[in-house]
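User: Thanks for the earlier help. One more: Flagellar P-ring protein. Can you show the sequence and predicted structure together?

Assistant: Of course, both are below.
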Amino acid sequence: MKLSSKIIVLVATVFIALPVHAERLKDLATIQGVRNNQLIGYGLVVGLDGSGDQTTQTPFTVQSVVSMLGQLGVNLPPGTSLQLKNVAAVTVTSTLPPFAKPGQTIDITVSSIGNAKSLRGGTLLMTPLKGADSQVYAMAQGNLLVGGVGASSGGSSAQVNQLSVGRITDGATVERAVDMPLGQGDFITLELKDSDYTTASRVVTSINRSFGEGVANAENGRVIRVFAPRDINQRVSFLARMENLTVTPGESLAKVIMNARTGSVVMNKSVMVEACAVAHGNLTVTISSEPQVSQPAPFSKGETVVAQQAQIEIKAEKAGLVMLPRSTSLNGVVKALNAVGATPQDLLAILQAMKAAGALRAELEVI
């Protein structure tokens, strides 16, 4: 069947979840208090080949250079006008990992905050990196590595990737450590990454089976308190054994993710829909179910089974009629809409209407 050229074909990516397998506890939970800390700083990148900030539009770059020169003992005459083309003002961001000690190095990301055309070939001057408490936790400095490529010739230019962002491997040195005790007193606290009562119960059962009854207790669907040795060496060994325990997580809630910009649809499992009918513009969706009875043979000691099966019918102007095999999965609805050339907006409106009517038995999230 040939569709009208005015109909936009929707490409939907559908993932059907595989059977749930056992996972390591370290992949399901974290230890309370053991976390990364974000760092940020403001600095200057010098040595650019004429691709720095335009000082007439970024006065803060000039102010930063004047302040830096003053700290280095260079006093400029009043009223001096600096025309800087090889300097760019940047923000420096990094992540301080747990248990990082002074002297260790961490990677940093340098991003232009002015109108610099490129940071390629630049050098970041010494920049203090501060945490949320305004304390300095690391000092950054080094030569930038910019992954993009820029070229211009004869009035035309081409650019690949971002030239205004670069990275420095091991570009910052940790100056202050963050105290992260492994629990308090006789207990440590585990926090599941996804709140789920089934998973929490299975984690408690697995820990108690390995270390003894009463070692772990769940406070709710996310927090689990675990009795651990007080000696730090024994506690580390205890955590090493515990984080490698395998647990089968509970099945997550049925969820449908809809990207309104690209029209992608992602399902975390086989989402089922109830019988319903939806009319949207020139599209009409009808989902009807009918009982199917399976009668066993006489004297076979079988049971009569009644199953609900559905037939999906979707009509669109100038697109004819599309019939799908009997199924109540949302996957069938999406395929049928794709076949008739529904737009992302059509699919989004239909899914929202089905959810509001109670026909979509899943959580609908639009991103």
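User: Great, one quick takeaway?

Assistant: Residues 181-247 form one domain.
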